[in-house]
Write a structure and sequence with these properties.
single chain; about 475 residues; alpha+beta; Beta-Lactamase; Helix Hairpins; 3 domains; rod-shaped; binds adenosine-5'-diphosphate
Length: about 475
Amino acid sequence: MKFSYKILLCSIMIMAAAFGIGGYFFVNYVFETSMDREIRQAMDESSILQFAFETAALNIPSKYALLQDSTIEEIGLNLENSGEGRLLRISDENRVTLYASDGFVEGTEFLSGIGAQTRVYQVIPFGGHYYVQTGTMLNVMDRILYLETMKDVTEVFAERSQGFSVYRRLTLVMLISSSVAMLFISFWLTRPIRLLTQATRKMTEGDYGYRAEQISQDEMGQLTSDFNRMAEALEENIHKLEHEVRAREDFIAAFSHELKTPLTAIIGYADLLRSRRLDEEKRFLSANYIYTEGKRLETMSLRLLDIIVTKRYELEAQPFGVETLFDYLRDMYAGKEEIRLVFDFQEGRVRAEADLIKTVLLNLVDNACKASDPGSVVEVHGERTERGDHYLFAVKDYGTGIPEEECRKITEAFYMVDKSRSRSRNGAGLGLALCVEILKLHGSELKIESTLGEGSCFSFLLPCEEVKDREQKTDH
Ligand code: ADP
């Protein structure tokens, strides 16, 4: 059953119970108040009649020592006629009726409950009517008499039944109208739930961008906004996962492609060597192809291993002076004459893992050299940032440069701008991917600025400690 119907059903039940019980008590209260009034009037009338009877009896000439039955009958008739619709009965001490109005109830059991100085009453149904019957004991001229009256209260009972029937109809009307109102209210109250359900369905169908409309600021509104926030996080994660899956597929495709080229060459030249008798020069060339392609495969597998290891690596950052890095690079390129390396750096102490940063710088300088013509300059620059909390490393070349649209892609594994040029220089498009992973470990990132035909600048920041200034500038 729908939630709104449940709310509706519960409210109808509560309203029906409230109206029913409330109405019953109200009508009954009115009835009891009326009955009390009628009983009071009946008792008053009883005492008036008692007084009238005693007065009448006293006014009778006392020629008899005892009050005669005929006198009592006469007084009774007079008393009955003195009031409209008055019903009374007078009985003697043996409960023998001496006078009774027409239509007075039969039976005198009621009199047994009457004692001296007491007045009793009972409500009785009789002949399709309801009466308040009162009874009292009289002691007139040494005679014990019982005076009873009957007062018709049928109207009070009729009013009660009428009250019940009016209230039943009123309850029905109120229930119907309040049910209609409740139906709208419950639909209105459950609208946020319906909107949330709709959003959940849409998202299940794959529409992750769908959001539930927030139509209130109450708890339901809060729930909707929390749901939307959760949906946003979910969508982001799904996009991330999708991107990762795509990147992995691209990686596998690029990897197999990169494997295929050297393997085809290796297999082809190996087949040539084993199936033909080649002269010395061709034999050397074939063996050389196999060697260089094998070397490329080796470099590639080592780089891949490095990337995988770096991704799972737990960094052990230590503070160290940046000059160790620049000294290392200077030593590495000490014998290479074709490119002129210029080092220009400020002193500083960075917090990083030195070997990993050496790998990054080596890759960047290597790429810069590969992109530059012989005799060109490659600048390796280092300086503290203005705030002094970071150290900037930059490798700048004046070589081929990179087309703008390629700048974003070159850090992807196996991506090479000029494939044949890179392959001929033993490249596999993995160096920058490794640099990015290492810098990610250090909480840093690689910044690439390049102009096609003019050169490129690769830079990154590392956290640094305060030191006294001392500038160095050396040419290699
Ligand atoms: P590779 O092993 O091919 O050098 P990298 O990931 O280091 O792989 O570089 C990816 C590609 O980015 C290179 O193939 C090259 O095309 C381009 N590239 C990298 N550095 C530079 C640079 N300084 N100038 C021009 N192109 C560069």
